[in-house]
Design brief:
The complex is a heterotrimer. By secondary structure, chain B is mainly beta. Helices cover 5% and strands 51% of the residues of chain B. The longest helix of chain B has 13 residues, at 2-14. The two termini of chain B are 20 Å apart. Chain C is built from 26 helices and 22 strands. The longest helix of chain C is centred in the middle third of the chain and has 45 residues, at 306-350. Chain C is elongated and about 95 Å long. Classes of the chains: A alpha/beta, B mainly beta, C alpha+beta. The A-C interface holds A 48, 52, 55, 57-58, 77-78, 81-82, 84-86, 90, 93-94, 96-101, 109-110, 112-114, 118, 141-143, 157, 161 and C 405-406, 471-472, 476, 483-484, 486-487, 759-760, 762-773, 853-854, 856-857.
Chain lengths: 232, 371, 857
Amino acid sequence: MSALLTLHAVTRSYAAGETAVAALSDVSLDISAGEFVALVGPSGCGKSTLLHLCGAMDRPTAGTVALEGRVLAGLNDDQLTLVRRARVGFVFQFFNLLPTLTVIENVQLPLLLAGSRRAGAESAARTLLDRVGLARRLFHYPRQLSGGEMQRVAVARALVHRPALVIADEPTGNLDSENGHRILDLLTELNVESGVTLMLATHAPDIAAAARRVIRMRDGRIEDGGPRGAVL
Amino acid sequence: MRQAGIAATMVLAAMLAASAQSPSPGWKAAVVGRTIKLPADHASHPEYKLEWWYYTGNVEAADAHRFGYQLTFFRVGLDPAPANRSAWAVRDLFMTHVALTDVSGRRYHFTDRMNRAGPGWAGATVDRYRVWNDDWEATIDSQGRHRLSASTAEFGIDLSLAEDRPVVLHGERGFSSKGSAAGNASLYYSLTRMPTRGAITIDGRKLAVTGLSWMDHEFGTSFLEAQQVGWDWFSIQLEDGRDLMLFQLRRTDGSIDPHSSGTLVDAGSGLHTLNAGTFHLQPRAGRTWRSPVSGARYPVSWQVSVPSAGLDLIVTAAVDDQELHTEGSTGVTYWEGAIDVTGQSHSRPVQGRGYLEMTGYAGPSMGTVLR
Amino acid sequence: MRFFSWFVLRRMAQEPLRTASTALGVALGVAVVIAIQLTNASSLAGFTTALNVVSGRAGLEIASPGTGVDETLIPALGWLREFGDISPVIEGQLVLRQPGHPAERLRLLGVDVLRDRAIRDYVLLSPTATGQTPAPREFLSLLLDPSSAVLTARFSAPRGLRVRSTLTVEVGDRRVPLTITALLADEGPARVLDGRLVLMDIAAAQQVLGTFGRVTRVDLRLAADTSVDTAERAIASRLPAGLQVRRPAQRGQQVENMLAAFHLNLTALSYIALIVGLFLVYNTISVSVLSRRAEIGTLRGLGITRAEVRALFLGEAAILAVVGGAVGLLLGRLLAIWTIALTSTTVSTLYIATAAAPPALTWRYVLLACVTSLPLSLLAALVPAQEASGVSPTAATRGIDDVEPRPRFRLRGLWLPAMLLGAGAWLATLGPVGNLPLFGYAAAVAIVLGASFLVPAILVLVTRLLLAPVRRLMRVEDWLAVNNVSASVPRLSISIAALAVSLSMMVAIAVMIGSFRDTVSYWVAQTLQADLFVSPGARQQPGPDETLSPDVVDLITSSPDVAAVDRFRSIDVPYADTRVRVGGSDFDVLLTRGTLLFKAPADARAEMRAAIGQDAVVVSESFSLKQRVSVGSIVSLPTPHGSVEVRVAAVYFDYSNDRGVVMMDRSTFERHYGEIGASGMTVYLAPNVDPDAARERLLASIGDAHNVVINTQAWLRAEVLRIFDSTFAITYALELVAIVVAILGVAGTLLTLILEREAELTVLRLIGTTRAQIRRMVMGEAAVIGAASQAIGLCVGLALSLVLIYVVNVQSFGWTIQFHLPGMFLVQSSALMVLATTMAGLYPARRAARLTLKQDQ
């Protein structure tokens, strides 16, 4: 299988007054299509920065990031947006649903934004919501749902447009352990079912244990689980 | 003569220098041979440019409270035939000075007024004698008595004067030549001894008074030579029945003008003209009064001698401060006040009273004003 | 205090745009109020300062209704000296035309220079050429030369006029040469009227004005120990019939009363901008409270009391108010220059000839700015501050606020607006207070308030109705926009209500003015029937003293082109506590040639004919309404010979003057007011005579000797509408300011919403929303807000226009206006408004699109 995501000598630094602070320095990494990768490490180790770069949310200060062979560094904001819209899905700790939209509206939104027909978008959303077990909650508003339910909606939204890569930043961080495990199970199942690549950042060792590959980070560098060219 | 200067000053103040040039077209000049008839000539003569009626007098109340008064009506023609048909158009200005000297109270009060005829609030009639300025008035009543009334916020006079002694016509039967320039003349007569009764109001009290007044009436168009600094004018009524009028003109160089003159009326009404050099008017040393208002220094006591009449008199102001200011109207300041007269007539003591006028001591000299 | 600075000042500094826009909103509101107060003061000040100068130390004055005091009565008033010094005065207007300068009006003051200095102080500038010349001489020189005049240095210097310069002034249709004798120093009287004062001797003034036999009045300076009241009573009892004693200030009061309705209208309008500004304060503080609930919770948790929390937010409002008030004060002064320019034509055309100059910013205005901005801002902030004080300490820990995503529509919330609207309808049925339509204004306020409280309900309904079609027919970002607005109703309704209120006023005024204009142009077409209108060249209304010379009247009357003429004369006469216009006109000509539009009675023309030669009059509608008289009423008119009772024969429509006109046949007029010339003539031409050609021939025959203006019917009709439009320019201008403030409010609110929705926007961006889509969404929200405001504004505006037309106008001006909808204007302005609000979304949209995606927790 070819590499879905290739990072080569990536550095990302932020201006902090006069000096630049490197959140990532000289990171190289290959992730193949269909992988389930967990990023672990203490706070401030660069997990989120790495996720942002992989998810086409940000550009590196130095080095290259290529998603499906396409180098993201040279893209402008709109091009990055189109990459995200087509190829990336996101799940976050705080669910990040739009509170003014119903569950099904939240889920079909990525498709609508990409210009899909309403009918198609709606049926795709229905299918996925059915898959995550929320078929009876379609017309509820996010605040009417429990945390676990909200995160399941978020998962559905992240997958509705059939992305190549799903970025999940502490998806269970705001859930009790039961709900957390259910979300993890769901993500694992979907990774297997749809073959979507999953990158997940977490603090929790038991969550990380579910991944087939674990990358340990510290001080902006990969400690362990680094570049890998091939599938196990 | 005395008031000519004052009136002329007023005219000049009232007119631009350019329009004050003589001769004055449209006004009649005084000529020889015009006879003066009374009471007809008491009335106004609007064909002449200048005219005034001048009353001064010394009166006393029953309690011997003594007063001096002055009431003067000036008519100054500005434009004999105004082009403007408005009733407010100014043909003549009417100026009136009224003063009261409270000799016993040693106080001096005065007020002046200036008005146009307008729709009738000042004027002088021609058919009979009546001259008025608002509610101030001089007129002749049906008994032939002069009635004077003028009241102000501070004081008032309401007097009735008899024409006791025959009229004194100055100069040539009333034609009074002024100075060397031709045409400078006026028609001028005086009533030198007018028994007076009436009332004086002062401090809210009305006092019945009696005494003697002196009236001058003069009218003409052109009077003045231009080089006088000022003059000193005396009217004296002596208890022996004689009346004396004297004046001297002071020139810019300090000398006395040769046109200074006088008239002596004897007890039998006989007239004696006194020319310059036949009388002497000398301020008495150390007797001057400095006006706190104008800063002028006036000689308030004079040595007066008329050798031909055997008169050697001391004239002293009844009150020092009798200075009249008219800043509100014409800006002229002069001293005009009641006087006491003592001295000798042919070496016999004689007393009298009268009025003294002194001009040219304050403000710009008359000569400057005349330019 | 430090705490305040940390919590409030720093926050305000961090959001400079919101802070600035709110302060600017308050500033604009205050500025408009101040500007209008200055404007009103200036139109009066022009008159009252002139009045003060001209009155000098006069404590009382003797006057006569009509054209002045018969001067032959004056010597008989000698007894007045018991009370003080008297001085007769003639006042008039001159027009000076100089090459390179527009025609300028000068006030002529004719006094008896011999007496007047007891009453007035004049300081002459010593002419440098002669140097030592004593000043009073120039005054006395006024006596000799009827062309001699004293001008002010302030007026003369910039125009190159100096002592001994000659100039030609126009009085009525005559040209009069004047020579400057002296200049008044730039102090005291000479300063007022911007130096437009000409001092002359009373005789010369009488000749220049041609008012022989009359003086304007006699001033009386009371002696020091005389009480004005006692003197006024004593004098009144002794004056002959036809003469009246009054205080100079009474004239000012009459003019003030005359202008009251006009001023009240402007004041009412000016407060709209202020109220909208206060909505902004409410809005800003509300948003501030909403967006900082967590912070407030933390503070409460740290032990800050409720009162302290309330004080913090009131403090924020106070700062906005103080800054806004201060800026508004200065802005108002600048604005006043412009508003005065806009209104002065109106005031001088319709009410009094006055040189309007902005009065100085006195403490009174500083106080007004404080009083209008500070307490009202605090009041506006009270509700949100109260709400802030109610935030519980646990709010901090919950993290998410409890605002409902979609507000529900509650029937229960409708009783307050319903009551207010009902009250508005009831208030509109009440009569005027004095001559001021206070209940009418109250009705308008009730309607506006009621509608404002309805805004949330309307918004919920409208957005909900919009959602489905927009989703079906438009792009996803448009649907999101509607959805966002729908969700933000509680926060948006204040801004939308503010915008809707100002728009509704705009609509109401547009409808009112449109209707009025329509009515007036119909009236003009019906009543302006004469072919030519002749007036003195130096006359601008209202100049009742300026007349046509008799030879001009004769020349026109005898022209072969002319079939009939109506010489009319109008004068200002004190009536009740105001001044009305009394006119004399040839009823026969008016009946056979002209057309009046009668209101009552049915056989008005016959009644008018019967009034010829009788003590009977026709009165204008505004006179009838304001003085509460109708056909058959007996009106007591003051004349120079005492009061005269006249019967009202008919009431006619007249939109030329809101002060009221009493018109009588010329014979009746002359019997009571004397033969005093003609203010103007209307000319009916012989058949088949071309008006323009006739006009040229008449002007040629009059020649240069007189300056006469002859206007054709077509020109005059256009002129009436031009004056009409200029009269209402200020109204539109004020409204525009209110709308600008309201749009600022919308922009500010949108911006805040965007800052608050940062997380949401980030999600949208992450899931593939492009910047362009975000921009379109925010602009869409702005458009929805604009459209909703305009829609509400249209409905409320139409209701208000009914109040304005049928209540306020009738009560304050006494005019019947036919309702007319200016459809095109409303369509255009609606489109423009939606566009403008959409544009107001531009900046917030850009801010939203610029949001960076980086979100490090």
